[in-house]
Amino acid sequence: MKPLALGLPAPMAAPTPHSKSLLQHRRFSPAFCSSVSSETIEIKGSKLEYKTGILDDFFLNSFRNKLVKEVGWDSEKPGYDGLIELAKALMMNSRSNSHTKDAAVRILKSLFPPFLLELYKILIAPIGGGKVAAIMVARVTVFTCQWLMGVCKVNSVDLPDGTSCNSGVFVERCKYLEESKCVGVCINTCKLPTQSFFQDYMGVPLVMEPNFIDYSCQFKFGVSPPLPENDDTLKQPCLDVCPIANKRRDIQKNVDVMKCPKA
Question: How far apart are CA 137 and CA 140, in angstroms?
């Protein structure tokens, strides 16, 4: 979050007509706003796109290097395209969905100093019934993860105690899902491991609700996920554009691909 600078006018200075005009047209933002300025968001046609910067490149390379260690090899594709290829390999080379999720959780853990996660869970997570921690991670997610997911913003979500707070993150159109084109990659390398990571290692419940029609996704920090048998996202069919499903159709003409093989 960017620091706010307070400018104090001279005590006896009288405002000029020009300064009055500026004050009338100035727009003030609330203190708890997104750290991402409008300059980082670009509109292409009807689609919002996040423009990456130096810090985003650092996050991408760090995440990709951790994927390489888990997969055992690196993609020849540069940048984000290579990251998506590695994510698909992480899922397809795993013995089971559970194995994929555990590997993804290890990757997320390795991105943080161990003491930081432990201190957050012990000292921050209990404050205010968990609301403070939930609000904090929502803002950090927007600040650090738009290179991965695309344009997103903090929003208000309903909590189990009947109240609501700004501990949600709404992803306009998830780049990770759009580029992978795979329900299984979304669920097993993102949704399930991310939910487990925040709950188990940061003490913050999280449910993620991806929309496989418009590729949006709603994060709800402070809300526990449903049981697997009650989670509709785990019952989603393969996307029509899924390259993994299409490959299976070619290999096995009679295979049922209505349900994603890795979901």
Answer: 5
Strands 41-44, 47-50: pairing kind: antiparallel
Neighbour order of strands in the sheet with 152-158: 152-158, 164-171, 217-221, 206-210
User: How many other CB atoms are there within 10 angstroms of residue 243's CB atom?
Assistant: 12
pLDDT, one tens digit for every residue, the chain (263 residues): 444 444 444 444 444 444 444 434 433 333 333 334 444 555 554 566 778 889 999 999 999 999 999 999 999 999 999 999 999 999 989 999 999 999 999 999 999 998 999 999 999 999 999 999 999 999 999 999 999 999 999 999 999 999 999 999 999 999 999 999 999 999 999 999 999 999 999 999 999 999 999 999 999 999 999 999 999 999 888 787 776 655 555 545 555 545 555 55
Question: Nearest-CA neighbor of 50 among 63, 40, 37, 39?
Answer: 40
- Which class for 45: exposed (0-12), middle (13-18), buried (19 or more C-beta within 10 A)? exposed
What is the rounded end-to-end Cα distance, in angstroms, of the chain? 36
Type of residue at 258: M
Neighbours of 80 (CB within 10 A): 16
CA atoms within 13 A on the CB side of 94: 22
Q: Give the helix/strand (H/E) hosting 84.
A: helix 79-92
Rounded CA gap, 20 and 11, in Å? 16
How far apart (Å, rounded) are the C-alpha atoms in residues 182 and 197?
21
